[in-house]
Fold:
Amino acid sequence: MTMAKGLPSNLIVPPESFSAERLTRQAQEFGYAQANTLEALIWDYELYAQLQQRASKSCRLKGGAAVQLYVTGGRQRASIDIDVLTTLSQREMHQMLEDISNAYSAEEPYLQFVLYIPDEPTAIEGLNSYTTLAPSSLGQKWHLEDGTLVEARMIKVDIHETPSLPHGESRDGVAAGIPLGYQPLCVRRGYLIAEKLLTQARGTVGVPDDRYQDLPKHLYDLDSLLLSTEVVESLEEASDWLPMLIGEQGKQWQGDSSVERVLDDLETSLLNLAIIDYSDERQRYGSAVQRLDTLYLPGGSRMRLHQWATMAARTLGIVRLFKLRIMGEEKTIQDLYPQADRLAGEIRSHTEASKLTRTLCELLPDPLRRMRQLRGSPPERLFWILVTWENLRELNEIISEGKQEPSEIPWK
Structure:
């Protein structure tokens, strides 16, 4: 027999936002394949609201839940866990979570926080995780230790202790058209871009192989964050954060040589993803994308594999720009990224895309030029693979003037 329980009466998010009718209606309107992951996202915001209410000066929302508050409703994806930055010590945070548990003691087993002990200790200093059960109006089931079956979902809260908080920004509290009843205080867009970018560094600090299925989720978030009129300012902020976030991955990642190593790894990893639809990983990555579509993405954001490859290629171009800035080059993101983004827009509306593809293919380095499949690739993907910021003028001539016999363009 399943034990069902209504919502607590003193939540911060409006109770109607948790109703099965509202969640199902919004899932249908936005094209989510499953309403239950949308329910998890709303609970993420409720749990953070409890923390923000008690320690607004000491906490910032980050991770996937924060990303969704920076993007349009049509790009917001569902999420099932929550990441929080805090200057509180482990003892202070533990006490605050215990206070929340006590405040909802009448709702037990719901909203009772338990320290999560991973099978293997994390290498990230200052990371502590907790789990809690949240009631489910959609009938999600969870077995308690005594065998009782309850209508609930398990949510993990990752708490990242930091000596000082980055600047925060209060965001409109609406997710997939569902009002949250408060404005979550989040880290800024630039911080999130840097954070999501590091997930793609597969050979160093990025998503480990046992969590391969999360790779496209983070790339999707990153691409969503770039769809902003203020993206140049955010990219500059992200390039400032990147070395610091690399150092926070553990003592072995501190220092200039580690930053250079991770940036090189990002280039390699993203170049591999930029041709993922033609690589040996095609099936594996395609399965991860299919899982993302099924669990998290709104209907209008589902894409074919070559579109994911183009997203990775654009991110590759941004990483090369970050390397210039981080390594002390005089040219700035403000000087260069708008030019590249404009050219990418011209490519998307180019009247002779097939000719442009053939031309750009001839400029690829030998290993890629020998891949016959790339000759049918969208030209925008090839542009982002090629662009090195030194060759923008040459590429501009090819794209804008229809030049079909290009001179040699440096590639690195």
